Amino acid sequence: MNKYHAKRTTVDGITFDSKREAKRYVELQILERAGRITNLQRPKPYQLVVNGVKVGRYTPDFTYVENGVEVVEDVKSPATKKARDYRLRKMLMLAIYGISIKET
Predict the structure, then answer these.
(1) Domain segments of the chain: what residues?
(2) Which sign, positive or negative, has the C-alpha torsion 31, 35, 41, 45?
(3) In the chain, what is the greatest distance between 2 CA atoms, to the nearest angstrom?
(4) Measured between alpha carbons, how far is residue 28 from residues 46, 50, 56, 77, 81 in Å?
(5) Across-strand partners of 50?
(6) What is the pLDDT along the chain (104 residues), one digit of tens a residue?
(7) Reported CATH class of domain 9-103
(8) Counting C-beta atoms within 10 Å of the first and last residue's C-beta, which end of the chain has fewer, N or C?
(9) Separation CA 93–CA 83 (nearest Å)
(10) How far from 40 is each of 16, 26, 61, 80, CA to CA, in Å?
(11) CB under 8 Å to 23, separation ≥6 — which residues?
């Protein structure tokens, strides 16, 4: 069991960490079929390197293109948004890559 009590869920043969993440995947598939987003992918890891030193990595739930802009999205509950390690990775993504994570 996950420390936040999320239940793993499988959709289209893909196992997600939570029901909420699986639901968002289905929503994004619909948006992609409708042409509102393109290039839906999961996951795409980013190496977090500062001054040549690898300090970690961040793997978002989804990446896709919306209105010509790459979107990096993570499905987060209020509790996980507050987790110190997630907040640090979020700040590193902005500092290193200039990417603001979309939280849903």
Answers:
(1) 9-103
(2) negative
(3) 42
(4) 21, 32, 28, 18, 21
(5) 53
(6) 455 567 889 998 989 989 999 999 999 999 999 999 999 998 779 999 999 999 999 999 999 999 999 999 999 988 888 889 999 999 999 999 999 999 99
(7) alpha beta
(8) N
(9) 16
(10) 15, 11, 11, 23
(11) none
What pTM was computed for the model? 0.84
Length of the chain: 104
Q: Which residue has the tokens 């939570």?
A: 18
Handedness of CA 71, 61, 84, 18 (dihedral sign): positive
DSSP string, the chain: --TT----EEETTEEESSHHHHHHHHHHHHHHHTTSSEEEES---EEEEETTEEEEEE--SEEEEETTEEEEEE---HHHHT-HHHHHHHHHHHHHH--PPEE-
Strands 62-66 and 9-11: unpaired
